[in-house]
Amino acid sequence: MSSSTAGAAAGETARVPALQMKNISKAFGAVQALRDVDFEVYPGEVVGLVGDNGAGKSTLVKTIAGVNVPDTGEIFVNGQRAHISGPSDATHLGIETVYQDLALCDNLDVVNNLYLGREAVTASVGPLSPLNELEMERRTVEVLRQLDVKLPSVRSVVESLSGGQRQSIAVAKTILRNAKVVLLDEPTAALGVAQTRQVLNLIKRLREQGLAVVVISHNLADVFEVVDRVIVMRLGRRIATYDIHNTTPEQVVAAITGAEFGESGDAENGNGHAGGATGDVAQPA
């Protein structure tokens, strides 16, 4: 190995994940939803989180988002150990989640949706301070332009917008909150072809801006278009990790169903570094 190659390898090894989870376990009564799961995503990287229904994807995402508190394990944000016991903790750490329902108010316009619950006010003139509508509108236009989101107007009522435009507004809210890690739960579900393309382009722009992005999806075509790595979960365990450039959808499907490792999946290793999958693991450049 040349000195330049060795230096590059050392530089990759030294990279610190924006979010890292170690040995995370979570049980609900007798149901063990997560078993010693490791997870990591780096700045400027898109990771696809895939698996069949009941694989543990939603439980893991809710643990990251602070909805669930893990029974065991550690969470690190930018290399520092973090304690996430609620959604406000996750938000404070720069972790934002966009769920399938988007959590938008259809009867409000774009500006008011982006600032709902955190409205900008003018200088206090008494017990009630008027909203700074001009500043909120200016910042909304700036963020939407940054994400290359095209809308009829930032004063359009959300219920009048397309599914892709609504998804874009939900993502824009995370940018306004200075997110460092963005979790997208089934971002292209129920969208048409053109709207799906709009959302996939949006994910690419998030990566270009240096955010760490996690995409939870059943649509492998979308996953293969935008992610850098795929993490496969099965029966509450991380069973495989693939570099998207060195794998195929068929390999990922085999890991999801358990065919890659035999009928019982990766029961012995438990944390996703088994068989052929490990040969495809690559840290992001």
What topology does this entry show?
Blueprint: H1 3-13, E1 19-28, E2 31-41, E3 46-50, H2 57-65, E4 72-77, E5 80-82, H3 87-92, E6 95-98, H4 110-114, H5 133-146, H6 163-176, E7 181-185, H7 193-208, E8 212-216, H8 220-226, E9 229-234, E10 237-243, H9 249-257
Parallel strand pairs: 3-8, 3-9, 6-7, 7-8
Antiparallel strand pairs: 1-2, 1-4, 4-5, 9-10
Helix pairs in contact: 5-6, 6-7
Offer a few descriptive terms.
285 residues; alpha/beta; Rossmann fold; 2 domains; 6-stranded mixed sheet; 4-stranded antiparallel sheet; 9 helices; globular
**Low-confidence spans: pLDDT under 50, at least 5 residues?**
1-13, 263-285
Number of strands: 10
CATH fold annotation of the largest domain:
Rossmann fold
> Mind describing the biggest β-sheet?
6 strands, mixed
CATH class of the largest domain: Alpha Beta
**Oligomeric status:** single chain
Q: What Rg is obtained from the alpha carbons, in whole angstroms?
A: 20 Å
Distance between the first and last residues' Cα: 18 Å
Structural class estimated from helices and strands:
alpha/beta
User: CATH H-level name of the largest domain... which superfamily?
Assistant: P-loop containing nucleotide triphosphate hydrolases
How many helices does DSSP assign?
Answer: 9
Number of domains: 2
**What percent of residues adopt helix (DSSP H or I)?**
25-40%
The 3D shape can be described as globular
Q: For the largest beta sheet, what order do the strands appear in spatially?
A: 6-7-8-3-9-10
Strand content: 15-25%
Q: Note the run of SSEs as H and E.
A: HEEEHEEHEHHHEHEHEEH
Which architecture of the largest domain does the CATH hierarchy give at level 2? 3-Layer(aba) Sandwich
Output mean pLDDT: 86
